[in-house]
Amino acid sequence: VYHKYLTARLVNRVYYLSLEFYMGRTLQNTMINLGLQNACDEAIYQLGLDMEELEEMEEDAGLGNGGLGRLAACFLDSMATLGLAAYGYGIRYEYGIFNQKIRDGWQVEEADDWLRHGNPWEKARPEYMLPVHFYGRVEETRDGSKWVDTQVVLAMPYDTPIPGYMNNTVNTMRLWSARAPNDFNLRDFNVGDYIQAVLDRNLAENISRIIVLYRISTLQDIIRRFKTTKKGSPGRTSFESFPDKVAVQLNDTHPAMAIPELMRIFVDIEKLDWDTAWDLTRRTFAYTNHTVLPEALERWPVELLETLLPRHLQIIYQINQVHLDRIAALYPDDMDKLRKMSLIEEDGCKRVNMAHLCIVGSHAVNGVAEIHSNIIKTQVFRDFSDLEPEKFQNKTNGITPRRWLLLCNPGLAELIAEVIGEDYVKDLSQLEKLNDFVDDAAFIRDVSKVKQDNKVKFGQYLEKEYRVKINPSSMFDVHVKRIHEYKRQLLNCLHIITMYNRIRKNPTAPFVPRTVIIGGKAAPGYHMAKMIIRLITSVADVVNNDPVVGNKLKVIYLENYRVSLAEKVIPATDLSEQISTAGTEASGTGNMKFMLNGALTIGTMDGANVEMAEEAGEENLFIFGMRVEDVAELDKKGYDAMSYYKKIPELKQVMDQITSGFFSPRNPDLFKDITNMLFKYDRFKVFADFEDYIKCQEKVSKLYQNPKEWTKMVIRNIAATGKFSSDRTITEYATEVWGVEPTDLKIPPPNEPREAIEETARALKKM
């Protein structure tokens, strides 16, 4: 039925290319989107089984690191729900993001063998297997450039269905896996020193081959599908309509090599002239930037590309030459401008700047929150923005309300449906109707009860997993995300120690009890992030075992944070920590999930926090700290950490404790790297925001003592989350970037009469 629907519309297809799809579990999400959850629950119950136990047995598909991969997963859900003909393309990693164990306070990584029992949601598609070429050399012939003497790897696609919400639309996520071709003699691989040679080979080269495999196979697959729509046309396939029928979105720079690959196909295989091919390519691609941190912007060594993809490097050089000729014509004698805007960086080892390649090779470039989009326009990519201002846009991120409300917080979802109806699930802006219930005593009581029930349930989980007695009436203060210096888990840690010191100093003084929950994974090679985890776990050991503190303050490090654990902790959260240094978090999406699930936010004016404050009113968030302008001013003046240490007694006490080994008596110098960083080279200025953060936390505690006012603020926040649905984000991409229109038309199920299906097809044709 869906195939007939696509054929009837001759639809424009959207291809979302992402190195990560952090899908989590699929069973419950599928039941919800198909409207089968109650029927399945009942059927499983009749069999004497427990649906929740069954759901807990499913492995998370952890094919991502954090926000970028989870965003891609939310986008797939929204694209299907909005009736777009969209495909997600990525890599079928044999191992997901590592499983994190905390042993003696340290992060230890274990392999996530998520496929060990197979994956019931995927279907191998060997009929669409494609050859991918590597290495070799380029020969110049009368017919143009020829890439010869290559090594071939086969790319095997695995398809996972992506159902829309209650609309009988099912899209596809296609993940590629590498396979050896038949004439590839694996036996020879095991002779002599070959295995050692492979182990010694540059790791970057192996990683690059995997990434390149998926980019190249994806483009070949897109061309194949386009050609099937042209069957029956006389002569060679015309690509004139290609950008009108195909929209490719690059989720960050990881898929950037798709640009020279499409050029290679057009020029070398389809024999289009360069200018025509380049025009088609630019009109096909759009690029989403996800970070402003310079170290996170990809730069590939020219030497690596020369070996791995010699023809693609030639094409990149030619793209760069045409680009620089244009810059030179516009800015004669400005060598600095040429250097800054080149796709090739010449300093030291020659490298290809992948962000520059994406910008030059795309017709649209977007950031993922208003503040972030402004920063990339006015700072990071200013020269490009000055050249083509119309190319730069903003698309504020969003989250799918199906997973992040219906699935994870059914109590709240049902309560909202009781007062405003169920339509909000596909139109989250309807949540603004909840403003009418801010002063409704019964609704306030019900919202509060749902939160308390969620806290009791999660508290029981924590007690079982961590053997720490949890006070469910304490404030659940939660900070869960990747561990990174810019996300400032250290600032939170300093606050925990400050609270601990206050309790110790005056044990009988009133104190609003807190359970502080911090979780997230550190990249395996990121030493400072691992030390931050070690500090938090050391502080937790001291705080949790001090009889003076009792149940006033508990600190939990949430092991192995992942999608399925987020679904448990987010609905139970009272206070959401979003405390990155202003100007460093592109958007954040965890902030939106907490807001939708009835947590209040303590945060800086960074990323999407800014828009959350606009939507809910700044007075309904706990905003603190430097703004972007203040950070810039401090950079100009020079950040002096020692001055804050000297003038803030509580900060001095905390730092002296860490430095002296109070939290690591067996190894007093354990946290020397952290203290050195904080005093001497803290790019993210933890001390500068310390005082304001502590004062803001006092306001949080004060409001928490007034449950009614707290819950009223919660309701105002939930009512303001409509903007942060990924349905809204995808609608903006569709209409402003991809040139496609979402539809709320429901496709008839396959068991309906043929006439109904054909009638739908006719209706769609008219759209």
Automatic annotation (TrEMBL):
Cellular component terms (Gene Ontology): cytoplasm
The enzyme's E.C. designation: 2.4.1.1
GO MF terms, alphabetically ordered: glycogen phosphorylase activity; pyridoxal phosphate binding
One BP annotation, GO: glycogen catabolic process
Gene3D superfamilies: Glycogen Phosphorylase B (3.40.50.2000)
Top-level enzyme category: transferase
InterPro entries in UniProt: Glycg_phsphrylas, Glyco_trans_35, Pyridoxal_P_attach_site
Positions where N6-(pyridoxal phosphate)lysine occurs in the chain: K593
SUPFAM superfamilies: UDP-Glycosyltransferase/glycogen phosphorylase
Catalytic activity: [(1->4)-alpha-D-glucosyl](n) + phosphate = [(1->4)-alpha-D-glucosyl](n-1) + alpha-D-glucose 1-phosphate
Cofactor or coenzyme needed: pyridoxal 5'-phosphate
Keywords for this protein: Allosteric enzyme, Carbohydrate metabolism, Glycogen metabolism, Glycosyltransferase, Phosphoprotein, Pyridoxal phosphate, Transferase
Purpose: Allosteric enzyme that catalyzes the rate-limiting step in glycogen catabolism, the phosphorolytic cleavage of glycogen to produce glucose-1-phosphate, and plays a central role in maintaining cellular and organismal glucose homeostasis.
Record text on subunit structure and interactions: Homodimer; enzymatically active. Interacts with PPP1R3B; recruits the phosphatase PP1 which dephosphorylates and inactivates PYGL/glycogen phosphorylase.
Assigned protein family: Belongs to the glycogen phosphorylase family.
Name of the protein: Alpha-1,4 glucan phosphorylase
